Amino acid sequence: MKFQNELKDSIRKALPELDVVIGWCGSFDRLHATPHFIRREEDIEKLEIGPLSVHNLATYLPGLRGKKVGIVVKGCDSRSVIELLQEKLIDREDITIFGFPCTGVVDQAKIKKALGYVGNVESCDMSDKSMVLVIDGQTHLLNFSEIKAEKCYSCKYPDAIISDHFVGDKIGNGDSTDANYEALETFEKLPVSERFGYWLKELDRCIRCYACRNACPLCVCRDHCAAESREPHWLSQENNVRDKLMFQVIHAYHLAGRCTECGECQRACPVDIPVLMLKQKMNKEVRDIFKYEAGVDPEETPPLLSFKMEEENITEKDW
Amino acid sequence: MALVKYLKSSDLKSWLAELAQKNSVFAPRYEGDSVIFAPFDPEQEIFIKNAATAPPKKTVFPQSEKLVDFKYSKDPEDLSRILIDAKENLPEGTAIVFGGRPCDVRGFTMFDRVYMSEEATDIYYKTRRDNTSFITLACDSTENTCFCNWVNSSPSDPTGSDVLAIPVGDGLLLKAVSDRGESLLTSKLLSDGESRIGEGEKVCKEAAESLSQVQDLSNAPQKLLEVFDSIEFWEDVSAKCLSCGACTYLCPTCYCFNITDETKGLQASRIRSWDNCMSALFTMEASGHNPRPTKAHRLKNRVGHKFSYYPDLHDGVISCCGCGRCIKSCPAGVDIREIVLKAIEFEPTVVEG
Description:
- The complex is a heterodimer of chains A (319) and B (353).
- Chain A is α/β, with parallel strands linked by helices.
- Chain A has helices spanning 4-14, 75-86, 108-115, 144-147, 150-153, 182-188, 192-204, 211-215, 241-255, 264-268, 276-290, and strands at 20-26, 33-38, 69-73, 95-99, 121-126, 130-135, 138-143, 165-166.
- Chain A has 3 domains: 1-104 and 156-175, no CATH class; 108-147, no CATH class; 177-319, no CATH class.
- With 353 residues, chain B is α+β, with helices and mostly antiparallel strands.
- Chain B has 11 helices and 12 strands.
- In chain B, strand 8 and strand 9 form a beta hairpin.
- The longest helix of chain B has 19 residues, at 295-313.
- The mean pLDDT of chain B is 96.
């Protein structure tokens, strides 16, 4: 990516004051990236940013509290940082934010779906508009517009909203609060039995690994989650789709008005369950009732973390 | 000479339907965008082109199983006494797992050493294991994450299988590996396969050659013990780990479980469910003390168990089958190969003086 060297220089200058800088680097093949923890000068060279930088690195911040941490963020990731700041789960003075203009990331599930098999990647070259993959000697050309993560199509914040160092030219963030909930709205029109049936079918294959929870930057209870608590015993250990759904409902409720829809829960799911939609549903309700969008303004308080004597759009005394 | 048969792809479903008359048959199929093992359904397409997203571990070691159902009642003769009426739920029937890969099925041989040892036998595991046959698919292609060749196996390793199926032409060459396997190859849908043996060998050889270069892991058990006390090493390699259970639950050789009594009023069930060492509660003690308080301690256990502690107890056998699912499905791209190789290269810092 164009700004990669500029970013490396920026990190090189800041590193002496920091314990670690989190970015991305290449992984087991050219089609995948992995989070990269830069502690020494020599680690900087491996840094790579671009359409494979899918991970939301803000997930690591609360666990590193107390340390001086640098973090490279896409626009969407910066919203998670803002949310964590709002909730005082990280300290602004300890965090150094590196932003860059993001033109979208890939959805590995879409690539897998388009090609059926991505097991033996020999090379992967990306331009602004396409990706050329060589798998088992065969060349595949994919349009970037077909393999982009769903969130990128309606992205309003390609530039980090909050940053200390920004490399490259800003693309320009939007300011409307009109999230795109088209797919969700279509789903909502289905009868209840069909919607319920959909979730029972999708969640049946859940293996209860809680990757969705652990990848979520705002699932901050960490080792004290209701899912595994024995006292109180919220969820049973039976292989029961009701319990699996119950956990997703708990997750979605805890994220209402806090979730920035980064999609890490869904990306992390090893069995591709579309769990993001449940969080989008809660966010849509919060948007309609509180006119609020999570992770945009560090000075705001999420609506469900605040209290007003009279809510503007809840007419509880009007019975 | 072992029995060798040939099955045309177009007859696969009919053959599985025949086998399903007397057995529960599990086969891989798409559910959403993932390939998982599910009870054979002639209405649904079987997917055998590549390894499934999740291995068939649950067919012998279910994600959750009721070991015992019990209920409480008061003794009518002495109301201060509580009576417990318990009923054991031993698994019933025979099963056939079609379409597991050599790595997946070999994984059960690592369970066997633990659950069917001379000292102790787990009757739930043993009952299923004894009653389950495996028709395993040799791999005709491999993935970047595959490393079965590092752990003394290969894409056509028949260990633990009853029949090895090799994709040949437009069909499968079926080789009986055990007596039970021979008894599975009696269908009229199968033709003689002798003439295709050479073709089958070629497929297996090409797949084996497509794997990455074998790494010598013989000193991994020792080196992992040497690096045990270096918390810096483990913090470094676990930095990106999210401490979720995707790696363990998709692992064909991870066999840890949890026991829970699920009680509803006076009725209860004792349940065994998968557990994993990446979870904070795995080693939590009743006092509140946790000997593995961080993800660094937890990942150390996962890697150490497979490449050091298990081999030390079990004749040097590494309890990793090299399927690569923990790498491919890790949301953060943790690569167990990289960690083991780093441990092998690890040189402790010598403090002078």
